[in-house]
């Protein structure tokens, strides 16, 4: 080991200092370039991963948007059907009120009629008449 150091010591004396500085600078530049290349390769890999994650996120977003639009259309359809049902219910209630107004005088006249006006009626007919509104 000592002989190796003594040989290097002799080499340091033979080679001019400017050459040693140039070699050290060259080694430093090559080291920096290799480090930067390694860093750039890592960043490129990260960029590829980020682009893939972006594509996946966009696909997921589009799928959720399609589901949301479908649900919005279904909700609008349900609201329209509910509104139509409410309208139909109001119209039916109006018709029932009109029928009730029409039959109310007859029902009142029947209730106020004396029992002497009652006559024997077939049970089926009597039930049908009583079932009328």
- Going by helix content, strand content and strand pairing, the class is mainly alpha
Helicity range? over 70%
Radius of gyration: 50 Å
How do the helices and strands follow one another from N- to C-terminus? HHH
Give the overall average pLDDT. Answer: 86
- Tally of helical runs: 3
Q: Give the overall form.
A: rod-shaped
According to DSSP, the number of beta strands is 0
What is the terminal-to-terminal distance?
123 Å
What percentage of amino acids are in beta strands? under 5%
Major sheet characteristics: none
Q: Low-confidence parts lasting 5 or more residues at pLDDT below 50?
A: none
Please give the structural blueprint.
Elements: H1 2-14, H2 17-112, H3 123-131
Explained architecture:
The chain has 133 residues and is mostly helical. It contains 3 helices and no strands. 0% of the residues are buried. The model has no long low-confidence stretch (mean pLDDT 86).
Compose a concise summary of this entry.
With 133 residues, the chain is an all-alpha fold.
Features:
133 residues; mainly alpha
């Amino acid at each position: 080991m000592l002989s190796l150091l003594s040989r290097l010591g002799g080499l340091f004396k033979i080679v001019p200092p400017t050459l040693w500085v140039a070699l050290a600078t060259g080694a430093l530049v090559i080291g920096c370039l290799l480090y930067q290349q390694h860093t750039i390769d890592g960043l490129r890999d990260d960029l590829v991963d980020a682009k893939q994650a972006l594509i996946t996120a966009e696909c997921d977003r589009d799928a959720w948007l399609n589901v949301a639009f479908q649900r919005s259309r279904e909700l609008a359809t349900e609201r329209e059907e509910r509104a139509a049902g409410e309208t139909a219910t109001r119209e039916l209630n109006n018709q029932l009120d009109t029928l009730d107004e029409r039959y109310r005088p007859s029902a009142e006249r029947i209730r106020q009629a004396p029992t002497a006006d009652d006559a024997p009626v077939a049970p089926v007919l009597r039930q049908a008449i009583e079932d009328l509104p």
